[in-house]
Amino acid sequence: MFDSLPDLPLERRWHSQIFPGPVVVAIIQRETAVVHDPHSTIPQYLLIRRNGDTYKGKWALVGGKWDFGETLVTAVVREVKEETGLDADFLALRGLVSERLAPPDPKGPAAHFLILVCELLAEEGDAREQGEGAVAWFSRSEIDALNEQNRIIPSDYMMIQHFAGAGHMVPHVEAEMVTHLGDRQEHPTHLVRFERMDGLV
């Protein structure tokens, strides 16, 4: 099933995809006081309940398409603001997921996404629905219950399991060059920036 996806005709690909579509998702955590023990806290994670055609009614990580020309940080911070109203700070790139979607119906569309899983810290304030779905905070046990009830996108659940609270960072470099694309070579290529975003050399 998945091995045949490269041969799938364009009309059977989601939005006529030629290449995997880049997507950014955000793991946003906050610490919340335990009801009966104000000196203890538990982590909660922000999810969105999708109201589009795909995954309608399922809870998911906040995120969306990475627009042309944006940095990774700009893209994921923008998506968080657009979907929750929250201002957030980028902390780290935690993982990279190649997600291939095959249809249960042999004539249905297939898709392929390259998902960059980022950790962000939201500033104080209430997350609010912005038109793309309700947003709410969940503890890990509540997220486990969503999964058992088939109310969260399965791959998003696994991303939370693998990357939430992870101590490791995936090296994230922003590279920028000035160059002629194609066969024009009147000017030399100039490297403007090659910066590792986690601050390490």
What can you see in these coordinates?
The chain has 201 residues and is α+β, with helices and mostly antiparallel strands. It has one domain: Nucleoside Triphosphate Pyrophosphohydrolase (Alpha-Beta Complex), CATH 3.90.79. Helices cover 16% and strands 40% of the residues. It has 3 helices and 8 strands. It has helices spanning 72-84, 140-148, 154-163, and strands spanning 21-34, 37-50, 59-65, 88-101, 111-122, 133-139, 173-178, 190-196. Strand 2 (37-50) and strand 3 form a beta hairpin. The longest helix has 13 residues, at 72-84.
Give descriptors for this structure.
3 helices; two-stranded antiparallel sheet; 201 residues; Nucleoside Triphosphate Pyrophosphohydrolase; alpha+beta; single chain
Gist of the model:
The protein has 201 residues and is an alpha+beta fold.
Cα gyration radius (Å)? 19 Å
How many β-strand runs?
8
Q: Spell out the helices and strands N to C.
A: EEEHEEEHHEE
Please tell me the total number of domains: 1
CATH architecture: Alpha-Beta Complex
Number of helices: 3
Low-confidence stretches: none
Largest sheet: 6 strands, mixed
Cα shape: globular
CATH superfamily: Nucleoside Triphosphate Pyrophosphohydrolase
Q: Tell me, what is the CATH class? A: Alpha Beta
Q: Beta-strand percentage?
A: 35-45%
| CATH fold-level topology | Nucleoside Triphosphate Pyrophosphohydrolase
What structural category do the secondary elements indicate? alpha+beta
Terminal Cα span = 42 Å
**Helix fraction bin:** 10-25%
Overall residue-averaged pLDDT value: 89
